[in-house]
Amino acid sequence: MSDVEETESEDSDTEGGMGNVNKMIMRPPGHSGKAKKGHICFDASFETGNLGRVDLISEFEYDLFIRPDICNPRLRLWFNFTVDNVKADQRVVFNIVNISKSANLFRNGMTPLVKSSSKPKWQRIPRDQVFYYKSAQHQNHYVLSFAFSFDREEDVYQFALTYPYSYSRYLAHLDNLCTRLTCTKRETLATSIQKRKIELVTITSNLEDSQDHSRRVVVVLARVHPGESPSSFVCQGLMDFLVSSHPIAQVLRNYVVFKIVPMLNPDGVFLGNYRSTLMGADLNRSWNKISDWLHPALVAIKPMLKNLDKSSRTPLDCVLDLHAHTNATGLFVYGNTYDDVYRYERHIVLPKLLAQHAEDYEIGNTMYNQDPHKAGTARRYLCSILKEHVNCYSIEVSMFGYNRKSTPGIFPYTEEGYYRLGRNLARVFLEYYKLMGIIPAGLPDQPSTKRSRQSRTRRRVLREPRPKTSRKPAPIHLASIHEYFQEETEMAASGGYRSMSGTRMSQLGTGTGSGTGVGGCRNRSYRFRSPGAPLDRVQALSRHPAEPRLTIIDFNQLTRGGLELATSKNRAKVARKAAKLNR
């Protein structure tokens, strides 16, 4: 193995020590000269990269060692490296042998991510190819082993613990966000030890437009720990939503001021550390012992929070510290406990609203405590120096995935899934400030579903003008329009008959022949002459038609069977009158 190490040192510029491997080519023992296809080349000398050492075990197996955090050798979990110079269909086994945190999500089925030049989208290695176990060959330490098969020789393959989010990507996002939008303000709070900017982004509408009401201030801190890259995706999703034209974002900008520090530890992110800064300090354990030289970000943020807390026009209301968790699933909150019951009840309102609006919220992982060893965290220290109405939380999101209520198993997060969490936070703030009475109820919070009416262009058809003519009255020819009616006389029981119009008329004549009585008419009458009909068949109507009779029935006094009784009485009266006339 010593021959292999000497050969590796000749081909590696910065191999060994506390640095990352740089283009390390793994040759088999006894091989010399130019590297061939299949002699894998490892590289981690790029931004957010982490791989400290590689040992060749056999032709197909390699032991990989994570580089510890600078000045803090006990923290080893984040890895990010590339592999090239492979053969098609070459199969290998990678063993990551020095993970410092044995209790992690690899026990729950989490697998590393991989992408290549031809497949630039991150994908998780299948679970049946990943193993997490105690290895007797590595002093009973936990080892993460995964098998992989390379499909293309010319591709460069990259492996990582979770989705990387680099410092360069963060700067590009801020440049795109703040240069074209008027509702954002970008300023530099401080510079890190390696002179990288620690920036503050303020998102709100024009403060001069809110003279009639004061605005609450929400401060969001992200990427305190470099290896917790999902917190940067959540923060970006929140910022992208707040500057959008969505009705919820417009309402929030009018009533809330968001002050966001997207990256508190730029040096650690750039160097590929897991939890520490360049000097090995954990910023989320240093709030109660801030050093002007070791913690420039905390030195700048602490007075900013105190000034906001004293403001009467824009008072500080909430502080969120975004993190990613390596041992739990879903989204959850770490909060504080207070002796004042009313303060504690106000403190748990926001997590309850978050549980209602996020399907991946894990209420079983939510915790409120006052642990002494967490006294240096942001949520514990800031609530002790700020006013009682200010709520401080740690928002935790899993590095792996969340449990779905409908389907068993863990559903892995994607980059879009982390963006969605940021948008859900914005919606929770809308409901929270409506509940607190800061935002009036009834404001539009959803985009209109009505489609805008599109105007249709009408095409006018050109018609030829009509010729002008002199107006003359048109001759009207009236034709003799006659209808020929032949009515059959149907004698009813009352002595009358029903005409075609349905009107009941009494027959005053008594004869059964063709004669007519007073006010009566023939049995077969021809009221109108049809064209061509003889004149002798025209029968003139009586000059004195029969007097109409009206029968009134009071329906309000009717009972069951009363209608038949009233009708029978009416028929009897009509019969008596007809008999008198016949006499």
Automatic annotation (TrEMBL):
GO biological process: proteolysis
Start-end of Basic residues biased regions: 450-461
Active site: E396
UniProt cross-references to Gene3D superfamilies, sorted A to Z: 2.60.40.3120, Zn peptidases
GO molecular function, one term: metallocarboxypeptidase activity
Region annotated Disordered, chain positions: 1-33, 443-473
Sorted UniProt keywords: Carboxypeptidase, Hydrolase, Protease
Residue ranges constituting the Peptidase M14 domain according to the UniProt record: 163-433
Co-factor(s): Zn(2+)
Pfam families, alphabetized: Pepdidase_M14_N (PF18027), Peptidase_M14 (PF00246)
Biased composition (Acidic residues): 1-14
SUPFAM superfamilies in alphabetical order: Zn-dependent exopeptidases
Family of this protein: Belongs to the peptidase M14 family.
Name of the protein described by the UniProt record: Cytosolic carboxypeptidase 6 isoform X2
